[in-house]
Write a structure and sequence with these properties.
eight-stranded mixed β-sheet, 259 residues, 2 domains, alpha/beta, 37% helix, 9 helices
């Protein structure tokens, strides 16, 4: 199970997850790995895993990196962070060229206090959010039309812009689906059939992952509207955002699989 976090497993505003814990315990009992798949950094996801009690692989920075935990299918005892893109420094240098043409602020511009202001995170969590390997979230303060213009300008630089739940993410052309495929291929290489893949998301940055999964769960935004409509023929629409909606939809997915 590959799951987005903010607005899905986590409440969009409070980051609460307690309502999902009974279903997470059930997934653990069924030996179904729960793979966090997020724009969050590896540092953030390690901390979140400790809080929730999930220690499976995870996909950080929207597919820019994959964490393989210790002793997982031949991984060394220290674990392994596999990155798929260049360092984020190059992305920052390119974005800086367009800073006077468009209204946006990068995470680097915001700093710890700015990240806290726009996310509600505490200082320690904000510092973990700034500990990025390969992507750069942007606080977009311009028009949708301007976003399309910047997206076109970044194509020759091999950078993409994708809207997430709170920010626009500038990154090389990788996505969460790439991380999902990598983990499944790693399992097959070690004679482990990944079986049915379930993906859960709520924003355009999740769409490719939902399309690639055997079974997709799409959650609405906090206001009840759906930001994406996957064409995956096996798709469950959750009734609400956040951990309550997540738990209900995952229970429905398990029932559909006879579990």
């Amino acid at each position: 199970m590959f799951t987005d976090l903010d607005g899905c497993l986590l409440d969009h505003d409070t980051y609460a997850f307690e309502q999902a814990l009974p279903v997470l315990s059930r997934l653990k009992a069924l030996a179904i790995p729960v793979i966090f798949t997020s724009s969050k950094t590896a540092a953030e996801l390690h901390e979140l895993q400790k809080q929730i009690g999930v220690f499976d692989p995870f996909i950080s920075e929207n597919g820019g990196a994959v964490w393989l935990p210790n002793d997982w299918l031949g991984v060394a005892a220290a674990g392994e962070l596999v990155t798929f893109t260049a360092n984020r420094t190059s992305a920052l240098e390119i974005l800086h060229q367009y800073a006077d043409q468009f209204q946006f602020r990068s995470f680097s511009d915001l700093g710890v206090e700015g990240v806290r202001e726009h996310t509600g995170l505490d200082a320690a969590s904000a510092r973990r959010a700034l500990d990025r390997q390969c992507t750069q979230p942007l606080l977009w303060q311009d028009t949708p039309e301007a976003l399309e213009r910047l997206r076109e300008l970044l194509v020759p630089h091999d950078l993409t812009l994708t809207a997430g739940g709170r920010f626009v993410h500038a990154a090389p052309p990788v996505c969460k689906a790439d991380g999902m495929r990598f983990i499944c291929e790693r399992m097959r290489a070690h004679q482990h059939d990944p079986g049915t893949t379930i993906a859960i998301g709520d924003s355009p940055i999740d769409l490719q992952m939902l399309e690639c999964a055997d079974l997709a769960i799409v959650q609405p935004q906090p206001d009840g509207r759906f930001a994406i409509r996957p064409t995956n023929p096996r798709c469950i629409e959750a009734v609400q955002s956040g951990p309550d909606g997540w738990a209900s939809a995952v229970s429905s997915a398990l029932a559909s699989l006879g579990l």
